[in-house]
Amino acid sequence: MLITGAAGRIGTWLRGGLPERGWAVRCLDVVPVTDVRPGEEHLVADITDLAAMLDAAQGAAAVVHMAGISGESTWPAISHANIEGTYCVLEAARRAGVPRVVLASSNHATGYTPRPGSGLLTEADAPPRPDTYYGVAKVTMEALGSLYADRYGLDVVCLRIGSAFAEPTSTRHLSTWLSPADTVSLVDAALKAPSPGFSVVWGVSDNTRRWWDLTVARALGYEPADDAEVYAEALIEAQGEPDLADPVHARVGGEYTLAEFDAENFDPPAPRADIAPGSGVR
To answer: Which of 87, 112, 133, 134 is catalytic?
Structure first.
């Protein structure tokens, strides 16, 4: 099984947990993995290099695609790494005959979706509504996954990952946290579920305050074990009770929907046609 982004935070969790569940791991990242573990294969390659990805995918039982820019950035950077990269991963899997791909989508694919007033938000209640360029790339990831499932017959599972950290660090995470152990369990379920076809599932732990429904994830075989509520008292003491009317808590994408994530905070301004380069006018 090939893991892209194996040197990253989630990739490292998977490298630690999936072998215990019976998976032989082939690691790929654009940088070398520093904490090499017994039995791992290691490749250094760029996911946007289709030839390299095709070589990496040979003989793999599945691909778990975690590589890419893990937050908002400029459009050229996001479109290259996160959109072109996803295409190369799926196309390499198709050409190499890999039957299943697990894609790291994100809650930011539907970030402007309002938090439900009551009950839990299903995947069907949260169609694409991205909050950033990053979110657009995740929408595109899901669309590409759907195409490769329908046209080429791959099993493709898209995980709309919440807040994947070692532990919650904000009161929003009391709802959105995905623990390291549950991350491994979710990916393992996505790899082992019989004939999932194309599926989009929320990636979140069994948090008392979660607003995402886990019915579809559980149907794959996911059994979350962790709950962010054990961190609630300390976080609320430090940060106060969450204001559910605040966009950080009222929208799926949280702070990614705020003005600080406007494009001009990431993309440099386009040059003005009426000002000559080098004129000193800005």
So the answer is: 134
